[in-house]
Amino acid sequence: MPPSATLRGLVTRQAMAIVLAGGRGSRLMELTDIRAKPAVYFGGKTRIVDFALSNALNSGIPRIGVATQYKAHSLIRHLQNGWSFFRNERNESFDILPASQRVSEENWYLGTADAVYQNLDIIGSYAPRYTLVLAGDHIYKQDYGVMLEEHCETGASVTVGCVEVPRMEAVAFGVMHVDENDRIVDFLEKPADPPPMPGRPDLALASMGIYVFETEFLAQILEEDAADPNSSHDFGKDIVPKLVRDGNARAHHFSKSALRSGPESEPYWRDVGTLDAYFAANIDLTNTVPALDLYDREWPIWTYSEMTAPAKFVHDEDGRRGEAISSLVSGDCIVSGAQLRHSLLFTGCRINSFSTIENAVMMPRVKVGRSVSLKNVIVDRGVEIPEGLVVGEDPVLDAKRFRRTENGICLITAKMIEALKA
């Protein structure tokens, strides 16, 4: 085994991952009215949080904690159902960490740094040498062992995971200004003129919300931050900028540790924080060769999987043929005399006769009546689409009835359908 692989395995076994999964995700509008952003469904079977969790598991990190806060019930239920296989006798652990006023009887989690600070006693009980702090709301596949190994070799106070993006697209992110050795010399939050990468004037390094610390050092800086009344107690706003000023913060390029579906594939990372971005990332999966490979058995995306019957397609008559073209259809779905194109159906959907569905993301248990036409839609869990409804042909009418984005994507929820009946 190569020396680096030996070091990587040693480092990952000494690490604990803390996934920050308390964010509301308000830009997803009504999709997060009843659930936190990490609990939003993605890809036909999974939830967004499953990607960070699967990366940690597949990387060989034996201990994981998930900090929850905003409308956490569905997220906690998912974690209990799908992630309860960790075994203490194998030195594994999986902790759900709701905001429970453990440190103060007055405060819930005040920021991302405070969410970790309030759980330092739990982290300390496992005595990990390294702590990996992860955002729980992005879609990507990454071997965290590579990043942990790099952190160990450089001796950095913090290593920040960064993704390379076109420079002017970086205006929406926290941007790392680095020197030729990837030492971070400045951190800029959503800069109007993002600094370019050395030797790459067309690209900038955007923060992925991933941080590696030695646990003892992390506890020290979080104690200091908690005592600072002027701090917002956030990694991106307070902790990382302070360590950058101290001069020993390093950037880790996602391209070094990304899991690719082929040798020429681009590293895949998506912030699905808007309806348009969420829709595009899901519909991309219906392509013949999608940018995100969900069929990779060597790096599986773990999740809770219901025991269901297979998907079924029935009727074979002209004008009433159950078929799906360039679509993903999950278990317990029945497509009865209807046609799907470039659509993604989660578990338990029912599509009735004479309906046409194109460019649709349908969450679990959606029921579509007869003679419905849907195009460019996201349909929330359990919605019942009434017979004859047409969406995607009249933008003015669509905007009056549903949440319609600038790109013409309509979000349909149960409340919106109820309002049609009023």
TrEMBL record:
<comment type="subunit">
    <text>Homotetramer.</text>
</comment>
<feature type="domain" description="Glucose-1-phosphate adenylyltransferase/Bifunctional protein GlmU-like C-terminal hexapeptide">
    <location>
        <begin position="309"/>
        <end position="412"/>
    </location>
</feature>
<feature type="site" description="Could play a key role in the communication between the regulatory and the substrate sites">
    <location>
        <position position="69"/>
    </location>
</feature>
<dbReference type="GO" id="GO:0008878">
    <property type="term" value="F:glucose-1-phosphate adenylyltransferase activity"/>
</dbReference>
<dbReference type="InterPro" id="IPR011004">
    <property type="entry name" value="Trimer_LpxA-like_sf"/>
</dbReference>
<feature type="binding site">
    <location>
        <position position="207"/>
    </location>
    <ligand>
        <name>alpha-D-glucose 1-phosphate</name>
    </ligand>
</feature>
<feature type="binding site">
    <location>
        <position position="109"/>
    </location>
    <ligand>
        <name>alpha-D-glucose 1-phosphate</name>
    </ligand>
</feature>
<comment type="pathway">
    <text>Glycan biosynthesis; glycogen biosynthesis.</text>
</comment>
<dbReference type="GO" id="GO:0005978">
    <property type="term" value="P:glycogen biosynthetic process"/>
</dbReference>
<keyword id="KW-0067">ATP-binding</keyword>
<dbReference type="Pfam" id="PF24894">
    <property type="entry name" value="Hexapep_GlmU"/>
</dbReference>
<protein>
    <recommendedName>
        <fullName>Glucose-1-phosphate adenylyltransferase</fullName>
        <ecNumber>2.7.7.27</ecNumber>
    </recommendedName>
</protein>
<keyword id="KW-0548">Nucleotidyltransferase</keyword>
<feature type="binding site">
    <location>
        <position position="174"/>
    </location>
    <ligand>
        <name>alpha-D-glucose 1-phosphate</name>
    </ligand>
</feature>
<dbReference type="InterPro" id="IPR029044">
    <property type="entry name" value="Nucleotide-diphossugar_trans"/>
</dbReference>
<dbReference type="InterPro" id="IPR056818">
    <property type="entry name" value="GlmU/GlgC-like_hexapep"/>
</dbReference>
<keyword id="KW-0119">Carbohydrate metabolism</keyword>
<dbReference type="Pfam" id="PF00483">
    <property type="entry name" value="NTP_transferase"/>
</dbReference>
<dbReference type="InterPro" id="IPR011831">
    <property type="entry name" value="ADP-Glc_PPase"/>
</dbReference>
<comment type="function">
    <text>Involved in the biosynthesis of ADP-glucose, a building block required for the elongation reactions to produce glycogen. Catalyzes the reaction between ATP and alpha-D-glucose 1-phosphate (G1P) to produce pyrophosphate and ADP-Glc.</text>
</comment>
<feature type="binding site">
    <location>
        <begin position="189"/>
        <end position="190"/>
    </location>
    <ligand>
        <name>alpha-D-glucose 1-phosphate</name>
    </ligand>
</feature>
<dbReference type="InterPro" id="IPR005836">
    <property type="entry name" value="ADP_Glu_pyroP_CS"/>
</dbReference>
<keyword id="KW-0320">Glycogen biosynthesis</keyword>
<keyword id="KW-0547">Nucleotide-binding</keyword>
<dbReference type="InterPro" id="IPR023049">
    <property type="entry name" value="GlgC_bac"/>
</dbReference>
<keyword id="KW-0808">Transferase</keyword>
<feature type="site" description="Could play a key role in the communication between the regulatory and the substrate sites">
    <location>
        <position position="108"/>
    </location>
</feature>
<keyword id="KW-0321">Glycogen metabolism</keyword>
<dbReference type="GO" id="GO:0005524">
    <property type="term" value="F:ATP binding"/>
</dbReference>
<comment type="similarity">
    <text>Belongs to the bacterial/plant glucose-1-phosphate adenylyltransferase family.</text>
</comment>
<feature type="domain" description="Nucleotidyl transferase">
    <location>
        <begin position="17"/>
        <end position="286"/>
    </location>
</feature>
<dbReference type="InterPro" id="IPR005835">
    <property type="entry name" value="NTP_transferase_dom"/>
</dbReference>
